[in-house]
Design goal:
heterodimer; A: two-stranded antiparallel ribbon; B: mainly alpha; two-stranded antiparallel sheet; extended; binds protoporphyrin IX containing FE
Chain lengths: 426, 285
């Protein structure tokens, strides 16, 4: 599970020795995120985001569990109980703002984490499993975020739930029945709110479980790095502790400064004003929009306005929206360039840039009203999105001539790597 | 090897389908260009409003919020509830516990007669919440041209640019005759059908330009004991300031706590950065 030169756990304290014999948990931690885990020495700050995501998960669980002690999942009082948290629970306003903006922070961090993977080819062998588990986590996060947003039972909660569960109605034959079964009724109400709360409480712990698998799978080959060249010798690595604990530590500080600025000085910036209006099934908001982190996919959903043969437009939209994420599962096999890092891929680099712009356009259109020109713009952007992953990436891999790679991480960092060259000769 | 073929086929399927949608959308846009609506051309964004509660160090201007409370009590409460605010909360505005008790007692709230068990009205207690002016939504509709006056507790957070919106709405009632937007277009000339229906009131800051609320404030609607200005503009600002407080009573505490957090985090992050430099000092990376 590690490189031969990894430090070994050697407890000297009798209590730790005793513990190591009975339950080697400290040993596990030492080997996983301690001095016993050798990590490439050249990681840049994009590699901080996994730890930040882990922090966000813990933050959401801690704030969420306390919120759940005061929240009431009943459609007649859910809105009032949220206001009770904001006004009467000690520090309740802070908990709620921390949790609501914690969800935003979590997604912001995860998007950077995912795009890091896109650029540096982190999804490629031997880390396919790490990537696949990551996509599972992302899907679970989306489900959790969606159901969480329903809980305060404001106007956007209600209408968001109605629109998103309505998507299942697009499935032929069984759709409508499935939708009513999921909601426990014909429209979102008590039954839906209660099950959403139950699942919203459960899923973060499922996520935590998948995160453990994600990290386990990562520790088999170890982290990749900005050159994409695998670790060859001891001089390529440093022990995780203290090197990366120190780097992650101060990175966490920077993250917290930004996060606390939002929580304390602009806590409603990422929310929608309509969610401060209690849910009203008789009054449809002028524009129903989900939270910002769903916007790119919401734009894809709404881009399909035209029936294709026997497939109704709505069903196409639903398939495309889910397809847009499911395609990530196939990424390790779609992009089969032997070079991992985008740094050494002159052609890929440009298309990666185009994908960022494309996602930004989709993001903007997803948050805009479903009117022209936004719909037409998102149609072009949606077309590029699918072409990028399913047509262009395989083509680029076949056509591109990558730049020469450094011999090793050590060479990339120090300019020369005597040890590795000698080893290669013999 | 099959997937080498399947992937581009799926990719092209989605891309071409959405491009077909694009073509049909573009065709529609050209053949039947969208007609601008009266709301689109004549709705106004809120005017600018500056309050002491704005910004990173914002606090409540207590005398102003108290004036806003007086306006709520003398005007708005005839139609609007304030159901998430309790009388005890008024202490935060600088009233003493005895003043709050007296204030609560000056309101009638629903109660139960201790002798007969029948519903009645009794003087309020500090623990009571502000009572609703109407028994239920049906009664509210009946009295307000079929519109329910919304609860005002959260109004300042429930609209885009809430405080400025409230201020603009209060001061924005206008006569429709000859009304022009900033581009000089005249509403009734362009949209003769947009005439405000009987019982509604024209206000370009309201989303669909006509609302069921009659102008609640005018110059001199309330008189302040300390002689503060009571022109329409000042009253509108005061009531907006009051509704910022009802929507976010913890605003001051939030700002103060925030500063401590940020200060501590800068300190801790600075230390963390030094530790990081120290640990990596001997490692090129
Ligand atoms: C992956 C982790 C999580 C995400 C992304 C997430 C997301 C959200 C979101 C977006 C909301 C709506 C925020 C609002 O408008 O107030 C919410 C509310 C809520 N969440 Fe979570 N959450 C997570 C974890 C948890 C956990 C672990 C619990 C409890 C065990 C929890 C309990 C609650 C409760 C009780 C509410 C409703 C109270 C309120 O509206 O403030 N959450 N969550």
């Amino acid at each position: 599970m590690s490189f031969p030169w990894a430090n070994h756990y050697n407890p000297t304290n009798p209590l730790m020795k005793w513990m190591d014999e009975k339950l080697p948990l400290p040993r596990l931690v030492y080997n996983a995120i301690g001095a016993g885990y050798p990590v490439p020495r050249n990681l840049n700050y994009f590699w901080n985001f996994g730890v930040l995501a882990g922090f966000c998960l813990v933050l959401q669980i801690v704030t969420g569990v306390v919120l759940a002690m005061h929240y009431a999942p009943n459609s007649t009082v859910a809105f009032a109980s949220t206001e009770h948290i904001m006004r009467d629970v000690n520090w309740g306003w802070m908990l709620r703002y921390a949790h609501a903006n914690g969800a935003s922070a979590f997604f912001a961090v995860i998007y950077v984490h995912i795009f890091r993977g896109f650029f540096y080819g982190s999804y490629k062998a031997p880390r396919e499993m790490v990537w696949l588990l990551g996509v599972v986590i992302f899907l679970l996060m989306m489900a959790t975020g969606f159901m969480g947003y329903v809980l305060p039972w404001g106007q956007m909660s209600f209408w968001g739930a109605k629109v998103i569960t309505g998507l299942f109605g697009a499935i032929p034959v069984v759709g409508e029945g499935l939708q009513h079964w999921l909601l426990g009724g014909f429209a979102p109400d008590d039954a839906a709110l209660n099950r959403f709360f139950s699942l919203h409480f459960l899923l973060p712990f499922v996520i935590a479980g998948v995160v453990i698998l994600h990290i386990w799978a990562l520790h088999i080959p170890g982290s990749s790095n900005p050159t994409g060249v695998e670790v060859k010798s001891e001089s390529d690595t440093v022990p995780f502790h203290p090197y990366y604990t120190a780097k992650d530590g101060w990175g966490l500080g920077v993250f917290l400064i930004i996060y606390c600025t939002v929580v304390f000085f602009m806590p409603n910036q990422f929310g929608h004003p309509d969610n401060y209006i209690p849910a009203n099934p008789l009054s449809t908001p002028a524009h129903i929009v989900p939270e910002w982190y769903f916007w790119p996919f919401y734009a894809i959903l709404r881009a399909f306005t035209f029936d294709i043969f026997f497939i109704p437009a709505k069903l196409m939209g639903v398939m495309a929206m889910f397809g847009a994420i499911l395609v990530w599962f196939f990424l390790p096999w779609l992009d089969n360039s032997p070079v991992r890092s985008g740094k050494y891929r002159p052609m890929f680099k440009w298309f990666f840039g185009a994908l960022i712009v494309d996602m930004a356009v989709l993001f903007y259109c997803g948050g805009a009203p479903a009117e022209e020109p936004y719909v037409m713009i998102s149609q072009i952007a949606t077309a590029y999105y699918f072409l990028h992953f399913l047509v262009l990436l395989p083509l680029i891999a076949a056509m591109e001539r990558p730049k020469p790679l450094p011999f090793s991480i050590t060479e990339a960092v120090l300019g020369a790597d005597d040890a590795a060259k000698l080893a290669a000769k013999s | 090897m099959m997937y080498r073929l399947i992937a581009p086929v799926i990719g092209l399927f989605f891309a071409l389908s959405v491009l077909a949608a694009f073509v049909s959308g573009a065709y529609n846009a050209i053949t039947e260009p969208a007609q601008p609506t009266a709301e689109k051309l004549f709705h106004r964004a809120p005017k600018e409003l500056k309050l002491q509660s704005d910004g990173w160090a914002g606090t409540f201007d207590r005398p102003q919020v108290q004036r806003g409370y007086q306006i709520y009590k003398e005007v708005c409460k005839a139609c609007h509830s304030l159901k998430y605010v309790a009388f005890r909360d008024l202490e935060e505005l600088g009233y003493t516990p005895d003043q709050v008790k007296a204030e609560a007692a000056s309101w009638q709230v629903p109660g139960i007669d201790p002798n007969t068990g029948e519903a009645n009205m009794r003087p309020g207690l500090p623990t009571d919440y502000f009572p609703s002016p109407f028994a239920n939504d049906t009664a509210a509709r009946a009295a307000n041209n079929n519109a329910v006056p919304p609860d005002l507790s959260l109004m300042a957070k429930a609209r885009h640019e809430g405080p400025a919106y409230i201020y603009s709405l209060m001061t924005g009632f206008a006569s429709q005759d000859g009304y022009k937007n900033d581009k000089g277009q005249e509403l009734l000339k362009l949209f003769p059908d947009a005439k405000t229906p009987q019982g509604l009131h024209f206000n370009p800051y309201f989303a669909n330009l006509n609302l069921a609320m009659p102008p609640p404030l005018a110059n001199g609607t309330v008189t302040f004991a300390d002689g503060s200005p009571n022109d329409l503009d000042s009253e509108a600002k005061d009531v907006a300031a009051f509704l910022v407080w009802t929507a976010e009573p913890n605003l001051e505490k939030r700002h103060q706590t925030g500063w401590w957090f940020i200060l501590f985090l800068f300190f801790a992050t600075g230390l963390g950065y030094c530790a990081y430099r120290n640990v990596w000092a001997d490692k090129k990376h």
